[in-house]
Design a protein that fits this description.
Layout lengths: L11 E2 L9 H11 L11 H14 L9 H10 L6 H17 L2 H11 L6 E2 L1 H9 L8 H9 L13 H17 L5 H8 L15 H15 L1 H6 L3 E4 L3 H21 L8 E8 L5 E5 L24 H10 L7 E4 L4 E5 L2 E3 L10 E4 H6 L3 H11 L1 H10 L21 H12 L3 E2 L5 E5 L14 E2 L3 H17 L13 E6 L5 E7 L3 E8 L12 H16 L14 E7 L13 E7 L14 H9 L7
Parallel strand pairs: 1-2
Antiparallel strand pairs: 3-11, 4-5, 4-15, 6-9, 7-8, 10-12, 13-14, 14-15, 16-17
Helix pairs in contact: 1-7, 1-8, 3-4, 3-5, 7-8, 8-9, 12-19, 13-15, 13-16, 13-18
């Protein structure tokens, strides 16, 4: 929105013109530095002879004697060494400057180049650094203090050496009065004014986002252009959404800590929000407090995604011809484990089993056994290939436990991968920077990489429909309060060490992670639905603005059929659990359902009978 986020600099400069300054500000510098500026040709012969006499007596270069033009020559072209040779070059350069430029131009150059302490170069930057105001609002006392600084900015620093600063400021005021450039009474009153207090440090807004911007700038343009190039950087941040994300995460983490007051360290979290179409990062929160920990959990933290990884298992199944009406068994089973003689017996979070159910229902209710059986049927390689295609770096875990998200991923990686489904199959490239303008007005930032086709549009839409069921029928039901359609998936890891919700609307994708930095459990009951989903819902609600996101466009080749979510058959009058589901044209079920088919599989699940690995 054009508001300032932060500044990176070794030198702070705010260019001004003479018209930007009140007359007394210009006169203050002339009075103390060079009151004959408009009379000489770049050199003040009388001052030079006086300085030369002192230098001869001291047998070294001591006295300055420089005009404003000479000072400008020194600042622009020379080193600060004190030698006769350097002074001679300074004089010659001053003559050349006077030949090429008008007095007004030279004075304006000088007032923009001179160092005035505390990182401020020029009157514009110094007015803000010392007084927090634009140079046009400088009072007589303000101007006199700034004019006191060029001789020795550190010695006359009003924050570190107030007595020295006051004495030299008042000297400037007396000189102005003696020259008739200030009313003596006004100068006397100005001499009684207090020095400025050190301003509080300017808070950096969106610090995790800003640090990511700084890193990208340095990686692409180099250190010197970023810190000394006077660049204007325009970012992708939505300030209102960023504030909402920070507030939502803070409230969510406070709620977790309040439910488990004895657990330490405090809960941490991250939020990242991407524009589906462009990959622009609209909000980026890397932790509860930058001052406490600058580690960016939105990008740098790689945590187990838990059930949020089931997204990749089910999406890979759709790519291989499965539909959301195909059925899986939610029942106990034994699977190959890490030890050949010790089988792995996964369980569901609630310790119960529900028997036969569709892929749609299994994902919506985040059942573990169906996901493991599905991964066993399609194989790990297609799932890992898909995850890499959608931007995950891995690792993905070992064995069939991969289905339950025992690998590692960052919030940014998951948000981007889910975004590829929300866009209809286009994988966006995350970006934090819109444009970077140099001092000549040219845009130095490379154009954004276009989103690439990563998924078939029909497959992407069917997966969106399944993730929509998570919100409408499953573990993400708390997001139904949003006034627009959203889709997503909860994620919870063993012992509630990580809680996730990753999802999207037709405009934005967002990932929320909550956990502890030392990987200890959050506490009993801290699932993705409880710890992360409220944060995600608050962020998405804030994102809507005046225009709520519309439903996702339906690509050609998609048809809708109402199905029984247990059997996967076409819904009939006797079916209780039904839903309108999306299918690739020609793959929807045609046979009507009958619940008598479910008796034994459901009984098997309810009795927790030991169903052997198929």
């Amino acid at each position: 929105d054009g508001s300032l986020l932060a500044e990176f600099s070794v030198e702070t400069r705010i260019p001004v013109t003479l018209e930007d300054l009140p007359p007394h500000a210009v006169r203050a510098f002339l009075a103390i530095e060079d009151h004959r500026f408009f009379e000489h040709f770049g050199l003040n012969v009388g001052r030079i002879l006086k300085a030369l006499a002192v230098d001869v007596l001291e047998r070294r270069v001591v006295e300055g004697g420089s005009t404003i033009t000479q000072q400008l020559a020194k600042v622009l072209f020379l080193t600060p060494e004190r030698t006769v040779k350097r002074k001679l070059r300074e004089a010659l350069l001053a003559l050349e400057i006077e030949r090429r430029y008008t007095k007004q131009e030279i004075l304006e150059f000088y007032l923009n180049q001179i160092y005035l302490g505390n990182g401020a170069y020029g009157v514009g930057a110094a007015a803000r650094a010392y007084f927090g105001k634009p140079p046009s609002e400088l009072t007589l006392a303000d101007a006199a203090l700034l004019a006191a600084l060029p001789k020795a900015p550190a010695r006359y620093d009003p924050f570190r050496n107030p007595e020295n600063a006051r004495a030299r400021r008042n000297l400037v005021l007396r000189r102005m009065a003696d020259l008739g450039w200030a009313d003596p009474d006004e100068a006397a009153r100005a001499a009684e004014e207090p020095l400025p207090a050190r301003p509080p440090p300017r808070p950096v807004r969106a610090p995790y986002f800003v640090e990511r911007v700084r890193r990208r700038l340095v990686e692409t343009l180099g250190l010197d252009p970023v810190y000394q190039g006077g660049l204007r950087v325009y970012t992708t941040l939505d300030p209102a959404l960023q504030e909402a994300a920070e507030a939502a995460l803070s409230e969510g983490l406070r709620a977790v800590d309040a439910r488990h007051p004895k657990r330490t360290p405090p809960a941490q979290g991250a939020v990242v929000v991407l524009d589906l179409r462009t990959g622009a990062v609209r909000a980026h929160v890397g932790g509860r407090s930058w001052d406490e920990s600058p580690f960016d959990r939105a990008v740098q933290a790689r945590r187990q995604p838990g059930s949020a990884f089931k997204f990749f298992v089910y999406l890979a199944a759709l790519e291989r011809g499965f539909t959301q009406a195909d059925t899986l068994l939610d029942a106990p089973g034994e699977f190959p484990g890490s030890h050949p003689r010790k089988p792995w017996r996964p369980a569901n979070y609630d310790g119960r089993f529900e028997g036969e159910m569709t892929l749609r229902r299994a994902l919506a209710r985040s059942r573990n056994l169906p996901a493991v059986r599905l991964l066993d049927r399609i194989g790990r390689q297609p799932v890992e290939d898909l995850a890499r295609r959608l931007g995950l770096a891995g690792p993905f875990g070992q064995g069939l436990a991969e289905a339950l998200g025992v690998g590692a991923a960052s919030p940014l990686e998951l948000a981007r991968a889910y975004a590829a489904v929300g866009t209809g199959g286009l994988l966006p490239q995350p970006r934090w920077i819109q444009a970077v303008y140099g001092t000549d007005g040219r845009n130095l930032w490379p154009p954004p990489a276009p989103a690439r086709r990563a998924l078939d549009p029909v497959v992407a839409y069917c997966m969106t429909d399944m993730l929509r069921a998570v919100v409408q029928e499953g573990t993400g039901r708390a997001a139904r309060t949003l006034p627009f359609p959203v889709a997503g998936k909860t994620g919870t890891t063993d012992d509630q060490r990580d809680a996730w919700f990753v999802g999207f609307s037709s405009r934005l994708a967002a990932a929320v992670w909550v956990g502890r930095d030392d990987n200890t459990p959050l506490g009993r009951g801290e699932t993705g639905a409880r710890a992360a989903l409220p944060v995600w819902t608050a962020v998405m609600k804030a994102s809507a603005g005046a225009e709520t996101p519309p439903p996702w466009p339906v690509p050609p080749g998609v048809s809708f059929v109402e199905i029984d979510t247990r059997t996967g058959l076409r819904a009939g009058p006797d079916c209780r659990d039904t839903a309108l589901a999306a299918f690739a044209r020609g793959t929807a079920p045609t046979r009507p359902c009958g619940h008598d088919r479910l008796r034994w599989p459901r009984l098997l699940g309810r009795l927790n009978l030991a169903a052997r690995h198929p």
